User: Fold biotin carboxylase from Streptosporangium canum.
Amino acid sequence: MFSTILIANRGEIALRVARTCREMGIRTIAVCSDSDRESAVARFADECVRIGPPSPRLSYLNAAAIVTAALQTGADAVHPGYGFLSEDPDFAEICEAEGLTFIGPSASLLSRLGDKAQAREIAQAAGLPVVPGSSRSLVTLEQAKSVAGEIGYPVIIKATAGGGGRGMTVVRDARELPRAYAQARAGAQAAFGDPRLYMETFLENARHIEVQVLGDGAGGVVQLGERDCSVQRRRQKLIEETPAPGLPRELADRICAAAVHAAREVNYAGAGTYEFLVDGDDFFFMEVNCRIQVEHPVTELVTGVDLVREQLRVAAGYGLSIRQEDVRPRGVSIECRVNAEDPRRGFLPTPGVVEEFLPSSGPFVRVDTHGYPGFRVTADYDPLLAKVAVWAPDRRQAIARAGRALEEFRVSGRGVHTTRDFLREVLENPVFRAAKHTTALVDDMGTGGA
Assistant:
């Protein structure tokens, strides 16, 4: 097993990874920007290295600074968390070249699956159904017009190098396409350093279902059940739960089997998530996220499996500690993402200093957070402040417990607002409670924000 791991991330996921490392007796190195020097992980880790100013481009996206920090502190592996460099094949390749184990899929597999258009081709070759769309990346507006004319409007334009719900634009008719294409191309270049796009039919009232897999890199793959991620705003997930409510078990089993088959076809290594859209009785492959997911706690709560520990085992060459027959999900888990945003002002980020910070507690409540009294919320990073996850024997109790946990959560500070009360509204929504919701729920509630 590794002796020292550098965690190439910040916030709650960096602290989450560090905690499993501590339990396994592994020394941890945190990295921080100037604005994160007093962060929770900087204080928790065995050592912390400053890697640059607050701008992500100069710190958490600075591969050279991170690799240098790893080499100088004697790390033998790097855990990328989620976001930032977690799915960057160039970063994985640099780590490998410098003798550092990248805790995730190989650079070559990241390159193949991280390219969303190529991932579609790989999924199709494995026999998975895909949403009608472009067979390869779009290079010109004329190509985009041709594909849209073929598959019909509305369509969704996506960044080939995108992920995490970013880099997506819905186009409802041909008149919107030229402007939307230009904006999407510029946005993809700005967000991912890659202007390439691809296009799919936009499914108006679909459900977003994903499957958590673990692979040993030699064809061994275990699935840990499906998650419903349909509660979204602008394709950013807000509430996730497992198992997917109201989804026929036969359909859920087919989706899980498709994910396992696809992962085996590429000899997947580590933790990954195969994402699908469900439209009626049909499901369609969407993308693969080659990393730990923000919403991984709900899977851990129903299975009892530490996904980070499994990541470390696979990366160190020990393989998975579990077999498919060992995975026996029990009960229901719901996670609510509490962001430092103001729903009354179109979900604008609300930077400021947190003065009161009292996370929820009580039976079967888990809060993953990096917040504390005195924590400064800045505009430089994602506004996620905490993930409130609960477990209960059934969905009715899980919804009640999640509502209670959110009610208990106290966060305040000058200028600081959160999405806590908005999440409580979603939990009380009759469509959500009846498990009839789709990705259109938040827009239908009239609180999508401009």
User: Anything to note?
Assistant: The chain has 15 helices and 22 strands. The domain at 207-444 is CATH 3.30.470.20 (D-amino Acid Aminotransferase; Chain A, domain 1). The longest strand covers residues 221-233. The CA atoms of residues 159 and 167 lie 5 Å apart.
